[in-house]
Amino acid sequence: MAPTNEIESLQKGSIYCMLQPLIRSKKQLDEYYSRLQQNANTAENRKCKRCKIEYKVEMESKGVPKPLDENNLCKFHSCRVIFNKFPDEYYYACCNSNFNAHTNFGRKIKPCTTHNYHISENPAFFKNGIVSSASSRGSNKVVYALECELCATVNGYECCRVTLVDEEDKVVYESLVKPEGFIIDYKTEFSGITKEIMENGPCKSLKEVQNDLLKFIKEDTILMGYGINDELTSLKV
Length: 237
Prior knowledge:
Layout: H1 4-18, H2 26-36, E1 45-47, E2 54-56, E3 59-61, E4 64-65, E5 74-76, E6 81-84, E7 89-92, H3 99-105, E8 113-115, H4 123-127, E9 143-153, E10 156-165, E11 171-177, E12 183-185, H5 188-191, H6 195-200, E13 203-204, H7 206-213, E14 222-224, H8 228-235
Parallel strand pairs: 9-14, 11-13
Antiparallel strand pairs: 1-2, 3-4, 5-8, 6-7, 9-10, 9-12, 10-11
């Protein structure tokens, strides 16, 4: 019988090997990314991701956006539509409103959530400061699960905490990340991140986190995660 450490090594390798057929080529990734980048937003003129209203970003002071008027707040459903097999209908998970009634019968379902800021992406922000694992020397043929908690800033959804987990479910890296833009929504109900957590820290800059991650993530490393495109975009990796 092979030593335990050799068996564990083979098990790790098998996961990496099994995932090889699922890896997308650079061409496929470029095509997918280009479709996602079809965004008409500019630094000032945006379309809200939550209520879909087009608006203009107004600043009160440097880097701090002007809140919406109380009579013109952002109105939206905070959770996505969920399918309920019985009685065969879709509904909003946040308030249980019947989505079928909205789409099939033309009824206007009143949004259940309001916020004093719109959320949208400034495409130019996420195109600057990008780093690549191709520039990171060495090899690391392992599989990592990548998880980022995102908060909404004037730039869009920025990373405020990143976690990297290996094949043995061990956290190999975790850090709070200080967003570059003014935070307009911590999205605590989803992220667990609060203003107090960010203020108490310790927080690293995105550049510091990028440098740390590239010590683990090489060109031949496999990353997995839910909505991983959003995770990598927020990390500018």
